Amino acid sequence: MSGSDIRDILQIGKPSEPAPRKLKQAVEKKPEGISRELYSLIGGAPPIAFIKPNYKAKLSFQQKATPWEFRQFTNPARTDGLVLRHWVKANDDNDGDYYFAKFNKIINVTDYTNEEYEKYLNDPNWTKEETDYLFALCRNYDLRFVVIADRYEYPGATRSMEDLKERYYGVNQALLRERAASSTSTDNNQERQTLIQQFSFDKNKEIERKKALEILFNRTPEQIEEEEALFVEARRLEQNDMKLAKEREQLLKFLQTYDIQQTLPATPGPPSAGIPAQPGLATPGGIGIAGGSGTSPIHDKLKKKKSQPEVDTKKARRMSNASVSSSVNEEIIEKKEKLTPGVYVRSQKIPPIKPNMIQKVGKVMDELGIPIRPIMPTAQVCAKFEQLQTAIITLLDLKRQVDRQETDLKVKKTQKSKDGTPTPQGPQEGIANRKRSASNVGLNSRDKRKKA
Amino acid sequence: MVTYGGDEVNALVLDVGSTWTRAGYAGEDTPKAIFPSSYGVIETESTEPNSQNGHDQPEAADPDTEMTDARTPNGDAAAKAEDAATSGPKKVRKYYIGDGEVNTWRQNMEIRNPLKDGLVEDWEGFEEIWKSAFHQRLRIDPTEHPLLCTEPAWNPSEKREKLVELAFETFNFPAFYLAKDAVMSAFSVGRATALVLDSGGSTTSAIPVYDGLVLKRGILRQPIGGNVVSAQIMEELKRSLDYSVTPQYLIGEKEATDPGQPPKFKAKDRPNTTDSFHQLQQERAIHEFKETVCQVAETPYDEDVLAARPQKPFEFPDGFNNTFGIERFRATELLFQPRSYLTKPGTEGAYGATFTQQQIDASLGIHQLIFNSICGCDIDLRPLLFNNVVVTGGNTLFPGFVERLNYELPGLAPGSKIKIHAAGTSTDRRCSSWLGGSILASLGTFHQLWISKAEYEESGASIVESKCF
Ligand SMILES: Nc1ncnc2c1ncn2[C@@H]1O[C@H](COP(=O)(O)OP(=O)(O)O)[C@@H](O)[C@H]1O
Ligand SMILES: [Mg+2]
């Protein structure tokens, strides 16, 4: 497509000049030291269209320079008509207001009449003259109370900033209230009320607050250090607590999962009293681990058979965790119902292993002599395979837990032996536990191999 | 123009400090003229009739000024014959103003400083400084320019009113404003709220500024500044090296000597030299020594540690030279520990630093001064002030000064966040109050604040109290 075609499409007329730039580009020389092929690949300079032309603005001599004038001006913010002079552009015909006059913001400080003062504003602590003086200062210093208190010099009176604020806000509040009462219109009553609220000033609270700040300010370095140390300690304790709680929870969850996995299939129909009845709750292995998966009845049956002997011992523990596990089950049911859309091979449905576990699981599988993916992924094999995976993961998890418990125990033991008290026989339990799970895995895997 | 809020009305800014006077145009970043506030004066019995130049026609007096033989070649012309109205018709005073003039030796030339404790004491000399600034240096017509002048925060109302009179009556400025130098220093570093520590030649002050207004109850000051440091250095040199500096104007020929050896030079014959001139020249030599060699210890003063620091050589105008080690630090320590390092009264050979024991006991280290000043302010304000400590004045230019302050202040106020702002360049720090004035007087929103001549004529000089606060 040539340029004229594009112009036709866009309905633009012919360019007035034949593009000279193009010609130039064609002439563009290849820089030395680069082979022709490479240069044509790089394509020379990038297309001009993408670079914003960076021309220097040409000094225009045709245009007449705008002259500047030294002009007089008065400032409407002044009352004395002081005439100052400044430079402005001659074409700037802003003869009207002085630009900066609009920044002359005046804060409105309430005014009161003698009558009003007599009626509403009398205060045993304040004379009218002093109140007037205060209000004059307020006007003069735009309500900057820091400055007002600093410059306050009324003969025979020493006033703190709080005294001054109390008086100022008190007068304002009283005036607002009385004026609201005397005015006939009631429509902006609400507004007035909020205004009155805004002018409330609690002197004692303010003094109290400043005292507290003062105490804070006057802390010695030791106190600050101590405070900081305490703070850090508190944070540390808090975090420790959190960590402990988390670990405990993890452990509980894990034990539950393990229990359910081991026992649930063994309870036909509605399980024990502790678990609310859930129709179709034939939850197979893999609870809480690597997501739910499709299960076959065979799988269930198999599992039932294998875990039967342990049901009794586990039952008690499971019951205690019943409420939690039931909620876990609910989750899993939901997950199970999810169907992958589209076509897929069965082995795809085998739940993936958590990435941090892949290697470890792989190692165990290797030991067992099972490939990492089933060779013949029939439904049965897949189910078994999945079961195996889950079991291995459980095993590894348990192993880790046991290890940790053991080291914990060891530490406690050495501590205790230092104290001179003998330790209870903790480790055996752990070992027994591990053995049990190991044998479990062994069983499963043996099973699996048979099927495969 | 509008974007930065500036609007130039050709205002002038004048800052008369105890050491330097700075004058220039508002909106510029450095003063056009910087010259010593001290001036030379020669009083003579007059018989000439033509020396009756009036005060009201200062410009006419200019071409008539006698050319003195001692005039410096750079045309630093400030000498001026003026009839002293107060001291009888027979006395004629000739003023010598400017760096070149003051430091040129003349018979019977007295050196005076119109300021004392930062306040104007000698109005006649002060007027001469103004004249010199406006007529000889800036060369402007006062009726065409508004003038912004700085004043110390503790300037009493009578002196303020007198300044207003000077501006309107004597010089005919169309508009005038008196700004507190501490506020101007705060403005110069872009702050409206700050604690301004200004250590100049004669005074060190800590002044809380809130929203562009000085909080008078927090003002703390003491007469310990650069001059005291110099005086103590002079004493120290006398005491430890038995050396007293001979200023340049007395030196004819000199020979190179080994370090620490007494200087060998031929003295010039300078009859009728006044004591004040000699003292000024001595001080000048010491100032130079101080400004090139001395330093403040960055951490608490510890002779053993500081003695290990590298030594610095220095040669005085008379050829005496030495390397200085611990002396470099000891001299400035009085700024932070005046009670221990100020010369005790009655010490033999004490030069300028004549403090009574009572004064010494009442003196405070600079960090303490800042701290006490802030503590005199409302508790709500203190964090703001601690976070905006502005350090200014020539005397703060010692290397290590800001570091030391940064070390000492947190020790006094352990729970507060402290930030010290000090202009980087030495001119900025020496001229900060002028610079703030220059900024202020070029703002469009400021022009409503000028005291105009009309207002002055209507209300009198007391108008300054209601317009400049
Ligand atoms: N680089 C410097 N190091 C130490 N002191 C200095 C330095 N420059 C100036 N000074 C001292 O600072 C003082 C003048 O400070 P300055 O702020 O100009 O005073 P003022 O505002 O009173 O005129 C003098 O005593 C001078 O010796
Ligand atoms: Mg100063």
From TrEMBL, chain A:
Q: What does this protein do?
A: Component of the SWR1 complex which mediates the ATP-dependent exchange of histone H2A for the H2A variant HZT1 leading to transcriptional regulation of selected genes by chromatin remodeling. Component of the NuA4 histone acetyltransferase complex which is involved in transcriptional activation of selected genes principally by acetylation of nucleosomal histone H4 and H2A. The NuA4 complex is also involved in DNA repair.
A GO biological process of this protein is: chromatin remodeling
Q: Provide ranges: composition bias, Low complexity.
A: 320-329
GO MF terms here are: transcription corepressor activity
Looking at the record, the residues that make up the Myb-like domain are 122-174
Family, as annotated:
Belongs to the SWC4 family.
Q: List where Basic and acidic residues composition bias occurs.
A: 406-419
Q: Name one Pfam family in it.
A: SANT_DAMP1_like
Gene Ontology CC annotations of this record: NuA4 histone acetyltransferase complex; Swr1 complex
In residue numbers, the region (Disordered) covers 293-329, 406-452
Q: Which InterPro entries match?
A: DAMP1_SANT-like, DMAP1, SANT/Myb, Swc4/Dmap1
Keyword vocabulary terms for this entry: Chromatin regulator, Nucleus, Transcription, Transcription regulation
- Localisation: Nucleus
Record-given protein name: SWR1-complex protein 4
Q: Which organism is it from?
A: Umbelopsis ramanniana AG
From TrEMBL, chain B:
A family per Pfam: Actin
Cite the InterPro entries for this sequence. Actin, Actin_CS, ATPase_NBD
- The segment annotated Disordered runs over 43-86, 253-273
The superkingdom of the source organism is Eukaryota
The family assignment reads: Belongs to the actin family.
The UniProt entry, under PANTHER family, shows: ACTIN
- This chain's protein is named Actin/actin-like protein
